[in-house]
Amino acid sequence: MTRKIAALALGLTLVLAACGGAGEDDDGGGGSAGAPGNTAGFDGKTIKLGVLTPLSGTVAVIGQPLTAGNEVWFEALNAKGGVAGKYKVELVQEDTQYKTDIAVQKYNKIKSDVVAFTQVLGTAPTLAVLPQLKTDKILAAPASLDALWVREENLLPVGGPYQVQAINAMEYHFTDGGGTTSDRICTMIQDDVYGEAGQQGIDFAAEKYGFTVTNTQKFKVGTENYAGQIGALAGAGCQVVFLVATPSDAAKIWGTAAQARFAPQWFGQSPSYTGALAKSAVAPYMQQSVLIVSEGTEWGDNSVPGMTQMVADATQYASDQEPDYYFAFGYNQARAMTAVLEKAVELGDLSREGILRASNELDTVTFDGLTGDYRYGATEDRNPPRSSTVFKVDPSKPFGLAKVKYNFSSDAAKEFEFKKADL
Amino acid sequence: MTTFLTNVFAGLALGSTYALVALGFVVIYKSTGVINFAQGGLLALGAYLGYTFADNLAIAFAVSILLACAAAAIVGASVERLVLRRMVGQPPFAVIMITIGLLFVIEPLITAIWGFDNLPLANPWNIQTVEVGGLVLGVRDLWTIGITAAVVVAFFLFFRYTRMGLAMRATAFDPEAALAQGISARRVYATSWAIAAALAALAGITLAAGPGGLSPSISFIALAAFPAMILGGLDSPAGAVLGGVIIGLAEALTRGYQDQLFSWAGANVSLIVPYLLMIVILLIRPYGLLGTKDVRRI
């Protein structure tokens, strides 16, 4: 009899546990498998997600298309019923102006209204809000390819980090580009964390492939005259230059190089490029001398399913959207966050803790060729994509880029280890 | 030798832009005693106006420059008329704070009208080059140097031979005595602002004609030109030009010889050099290279 009661009690416990606590969880979020209960940012019908991005200021050229990518993904998802086919998603957007103090202020303004942040744009704003994300146990997706994010539990990065781009650029140079390890390979990098990430990748590649970095030129963002740096690179006889910059500086750098008739093989890390460059006076020089290392495929490439779907969604929900790399990034980010939300709904818990748990239990998320698949899960097990695509500048293409080598991964990139940083 | 000459040329071109900006600072300071922190905003506004004339309205580039300078001059004079005239006789600190406020008003205004995108300014220079004795020179850089030289000559002629130039010099020297002689200080102030804004527009357009195109951050150059103005002497137009050229050359040569001579000092020593030069010269000559020593009775 006692055994029967014990078995019944155990069975009841298991059933209750399995049913979860939809609407029963006092601290919000629900139980473990039923419908998730109401919680901050979720009223039982709509899931609210935060967006901290520069919608004004000099970096708005990135923040606006990236947010448009977020919006289009979720509008298409909502049209299909929403997360798990039943919960619509709404974005709560705040303008950070790409300033860390404003990012923190806006984070605090909306953190109680959202279940997670589907976008925090930029390395510096992400670093600024990270301590509070940890304290508040909130998940956020950084719009930045910095390797620092890979091992952070509160962050949900997408895409191959900058180091991977740099390593794969060298792989391309030695395999398809006809280069040898005796070439004079140089770097020109922004004097900040973003620049260091690219340099770290090149240094790793130098060790793996056995070449020497002949010369490195650093510069401060917004430098007006690059004659000195270009002169130094030319003087060092550089045959290959890996550039880590943002478009405004990259245009001046390539313009100065064109004027100096210095034409090595340039590899530009993805944020160095924007579509406007393909329509600028520097375009002819770039067509001859510049390759861009990025991810995914060229805009409108119907051989890649993810691109076909994204262009269709963009046409339907943002018909005036120009082809843009950052739009695709935002679209991918939203897709990764959706995978987390689907998992959280599956676990019956949309609370902050529930979403972190869902992120930890997530497996590989595929992006249908728009970017490499990302193995999520516990931070120590995360494995970002090691793939890159090399593009050449072609003004006749949308966004001015034509793919040269699509979605390849070098052995060296696969060997690169992402370590947890003390943030 | 080619490397040295290339760096000198780059320094002269950069210094010419600094000189144009610094001249704008000096013109206003000389006549009103105020450092105009909105100069960077006027520079950006002038460049965007140039873009509107050259690209949106497809007006010839040379005409667009003139129209942009004229439009900027009207804006400058209007700012003086509507805002700063009310501050005549008030402490300089309050007026300076107003110019800082103006900068923060102009910048969002620009982005509200033209947006944040990098805009390519249609111009005949772009990245064209000419080769002189084995030295490759940028056409835009040559034009910037030439325009600055022409402006300096025009300035000299204006101050020396025109009635308004004389009025401006008199007002700068002794406002009360000038007033007693029938010189309108209001006209002098308005003219100063108009000239400074036109100079800023000119500097902005020459900058935007480069490969970097036009973006709201173009106004930052005014901060870089600041040491040029201080170094040359706050009240000296000739000092502004000299200061601009010195700072431009110092920056370009330090950058060019960074690897050989300054690698021990970090990657961006060329950005520190203008300020180091400014400090050293101010220690020796507190009023700048060509500034007027302020004599006071004790």
Automatic annotation (TrEMBL), chain A:
Family: Belongs to the leucine-binding protein family.
Taxon lineage: Bacteria, Bacillati, Actinomycetota, Actinomycetes, Pseudonocardiales
Leader sequence residues: 1-17
Superkingdom: Bacteria
Pfam families per UniProt: Peripla_BP_6 (PF13458)
Natural source organism: Actinophytocola algeriensis
Domain called Leucine-binding protein: residue spans: 46-394
Keyword Transcription regulation: no
Keyword line: Signal
Protein's recorded name: ABC-type branched-subunit amino acid transport system substrate-binding protein
From TrEMBL, chain B:
Pfam families linked: BPD_transp_2
Classification via InterPro entries: ABC_transp_permease, BCAA_transport_permease
Main location group: membrane
GO biological process, one term: amino acid transport
Keyword presence, Transmembrane helix: yes
Compartments in which it is found: Cell membrane
CDD domains, per database record: TM_PBP1_LivH_like (cd06582)
Entry's transmembrane regions: 6-27, 57-79, 91-116, 142-159, 188-209, 221-249, 261-284
Gene Ontology molecular function: any one: transmembrane transporter activity
Keywords of this entry: Amino-acid transport, Cell membrane, Membrane, Transmembrane, Transmembrane helix, Transport
Membrane topology: Multi-pass membrane protein
One GO CC annotation: plasma membrane
Similarity comment: Belongs to the binding-protein-dependent transport system permease family. LivHM subfamily.
Protein name (database record): Branched-chain amino acid transport system permease protein
Lineage: Bacteria, Bacillati, Actinomycetota, Actinomycetes, Pseudonocardiales
